[in-house]
Specification:
Largest sheet: none
Radius of gyration: 14 Å
Helix content: 55-70%
Order of helices and strands: HHH
Number of helices: 3
Shape: flat
Number of strands: 0
Strand content: under 5%
Structural class: mainly alpha
Distance between the termini: 34 Å
Length: 84
């Protein structure tokens, strides 16, 4: 039986990817590495939207890949304040 878990080399449906990210965020909250006050499902939606928007901004020449990476790291540092 095929796994429904997203893997490298295969594009996941948006709902599948949201569930995947939300699950990992929930696990990170449980082990104390992610901010427990945040809603994992909403944060998964935000991560997907931010990554899509940043990717488009790089493709359109609005910012460099390095600048987009800096923005993404800024958001991730807010989700995972312990730095782990």
């Amino acid at each position: 039986m095929a796994s429904s878990r997203p893997t490298a080399g295969r594009l996941a449906a948006p709902d599948e990817m949201e569930a995947f990210l939300a699950g990992h965020l929930t696990a990170a909250q449980a082990d104390g590495t992610a901010d427990p006050r945040l809603d994992p499902r909403h944060e998964a939606v935000v991560l997907l939207a931010v990554s899509a928007g940043l990717g488009l901004s790089v493709l359109l020449g609005q910012r460099t890949a390095a600048a987009a990476t800096t923005v993404l790291h800024y958001h991730l540092d807010r989700l995972f304040p312990t730095g782990t």
